[in-house]
Design a protein that fits this description.
Elements lengths: L1 E3 L2 E3 L6 E7 L2 E6 L5 E2 L3 H7 L5 E3 L4 E4 L3 E6 L5 E5 L4 E4 L1 H11 L2
Antiparallel strand pairs: 1-2, 3-4, 3-7, 4-5, 6-7, 8-9, 9-10
């Protein structure tokens, strides 16, 4: 359940494409919606399934099942494209973990 103001959504965790840090809030992206949650990305990262979501960088937590393309990035990181067309950079430090997870 995600509540943002007067709106409430009941969604499956699999339907969430990614989370984006926005100050003291986290934007949750699913379908065409992106409501805000009053919590930090670090707090969310500690509570979410690491087999389904990956911390790409300081700002994004991405659903691994929504990745459709992976490109190497100029600084040693990676750039991933999600099924919704969004492109997110995986930081150099996190790219090492990502490559180890998937034996890339």
């Amino acid at each position: 359940m995600i509540k943002d103001g007067d709106k409430v959504w009941f969604i499956n965790i699999d339907d969430i494409r990614y989370f984006e840090s926005d100050g003291n809030y986290v934007k949750v992206y699913f379908d065409t919606f992106h409501p805000l949650l009053l919590r930090s990305l670090n707090n969310l990262n500690d509570r979410i399934d690491p087999k389904l979501f990956f911390r790409a960088n300081r700002k994004y937590l991405i659903n691994l099942e929504t990745i459709v393309k992976i490109d190497t990035w100029f600084n040693g990181g990676l750039n991933v494209e999600l099924d919704c067309g969004t492109k997110i950079e995986i930081s150099r430090r996190q790219a090492i973990k990502f490559k180890d997870m998937f034996s890339i």
